[in-house]
Amino acid sequence: MSHLISVAMITMNEERAVARVIEDIRGALGSRPHEIVIVDSSRDATPTIAASFGARVIRQFPPQGYGRAMARVLTESVGDVIVTLDCDGTYPAPEIPVLAEMVLSGQYDVVNASRLEHRPASMPLANYLANWLFAFSAWLLVGVKSTDLHSGMRAYSHRVIRQVEVDPNGPALPVDLLLKPALQGFRIHEVFIPYGERIGETTLQRWSSTLWTFRRIFRLAISRFSPLSKSPVSAD
Ligand SMILES: Nc1nc2c(ncn2[C@@H]2O[C@H](COP(=O)(O)OP(=O)(O)O)[C@@H](O)[C@H]2O)c(=O)[nH]1
Ligand SMILES: [Mg+2]
Fold it and tell me: How confident is the model at residue 233 (pLDDT cuts 50, 70, 90)?
């Protein structure tokens, strides 16, 4: 039986990138059964372009933030595996079937595509150092080894999305989406990918994202020691 792959993206004003990103996804997946699901909060032509290229577009307007958009697109996706990426040309579409297969084969429940084997030329030094500090803190406090808590490119099994509850309010949701499945005993794996130059402007708000990253890590660190929590596992 052929599995369905959902490619899930959230978009805010990505009209310069969206057509190319969707074409790259289709090129990478070829004849494999797939759906492209987008939660869109744009003021520009992004949703019209995305729909004309065959994506299923769900409007979330006015924008409710990265977390709420990402939580919505994950629950709307019906595939056996759900692969996320930003709609800005930074993540390598050819990796989508590779990541998806690692989950579909039953080997892993979440595959995290880390951008941080080396510092990508497209990532400012401050962001690179912050990402290492986040990763170190998560290892120290939560017991999960990862090099990139903020990657937007991941493959999740449908089961993980159904069973893991995350807090969609506030930035830095990718932190919960990686650490929570690990704490619940799901099998996490990490691979390195190249990270390209963005088309258009970033929406990242550095300070609130940093604050929320630590907030999420500390919350999980505390929950580890509550009597009901399970023992943590490491990404390998
Ligand atoms: N629907 C929706 N998408 C968003 C929102 N904020 C950011 N995005 C999208 O989320 C993805 C990641 O944001 P991006 O600006 O690339 O952040 P960066 O990768 O950290 O620089 C992009 O595809 C954005 O268009 C939002 O509030 N709503
Ligand atoms: Mg991006």
Answer: very low
Give yes or no for residue 204 CB within 6 A of ligand 1: yes
Strand order in the sheet with 188-192: 56-59, 34-40, 5-11, 81-84, 154-157, 110-114, 188-192
Is pLDDT at 236 greater than 80 in this prediction? no
Distance 151 CA to ligand 2 centre (A): 9
Instruction: State if residue 42 touches ligand 1 by the CB under 6 angstroms criterion.
Output: no
Q: Is the CB of 78 under 6 A from ligand 1?
A: no
pTM listed for this prediction: 0.95
For residue 206, the CA-to-ligand 1 centroid distance in Å is 13
pLDDT mean over 124-152? 98
CA-CA distance, 217 to 135, in Å (whole number)? 10
Ligand 1 atom index nearest CA of 201: 15
Q: Do 201 and 88 contact (CB within 8 A), yes or no?
A: no
C-alpha 69/C-alpha 235 separation (Å) is 26
CATH of 5-224, one of 3.40.50.720, 3.40.50.2000, 3.40.50.2300, 3.90.550.10: 3.90.550.10
Token representation of residue 163 = 């069973």
β-bridge mates for residue 83, sequence order: 7, 155
Task: Answer yes or no: is the C-beta of 235 below 6 A from any ligand 1 atom.
Answer: no
Residue-range domain boundaries for the chain:
5-224
Q: What is the pLDDT of residues 67-117, one digit of tens each?
A: 999 999 999 999 999 999 999 999 999 999 999 999 999 999 999 999 999
What φ, ψ does residue 82 adopt, rounded to 5°? -120, 120
